[in-house]
Write a structure and sequence with these properties.
- The chain has 88 residues and is mainly alpha-helical.
- The protein has a domain at 31-86.
- It has helices at 32-46, 48-60, 65-86; strands spanning 14-17, 24-27.
- It has a two-stranded antiparallel ribbon.
- A hairpin with a 6-residue loop joins strand 1 and strand 2.
């Protein structure tokens, strides 16, 4: 069974008027999930104690620090999307 991830929709959608002035073209841009993960990753990288934990996990699992940090950031983004949907 395939797991479908809720990406939270577009983070910065916009419509652009085409040259003829009568039609619009929609741009989705990055998803809210991607945006939230980028913000979470920035916070993780800026926090030495978090990075120490990530480095320990990476060494125990024989994985790269970057891969573990990215996974943790995506997990934060997914948790944020779930919580936002639950509180709507």
């Amino acid at each position: 069974m395939m797991h479908i991830v809720d990406n939270g929709g577009a983070a910065f959608p916009f419509q652009e008027k085409l040259g003829d002035g009568t039609h619009y073209h929609s741009h989705e841009g990055m998803t809210f999930r991607q945006y939230a993960a980028v913000k979470a990753l920035a916070g993780l990288l800026a926090n030495p104690s978090q990075m120490t934990c990530i480095e320990e996990v990476a060494s125990k699992r024989d994985n790269s620090v970057q891969a573990v940090a990215a996974y943790v950031a995506m997990s934060y983004a997914d948790a944020l999307i779930r919580t936002l949907k639950e509180t709507e």
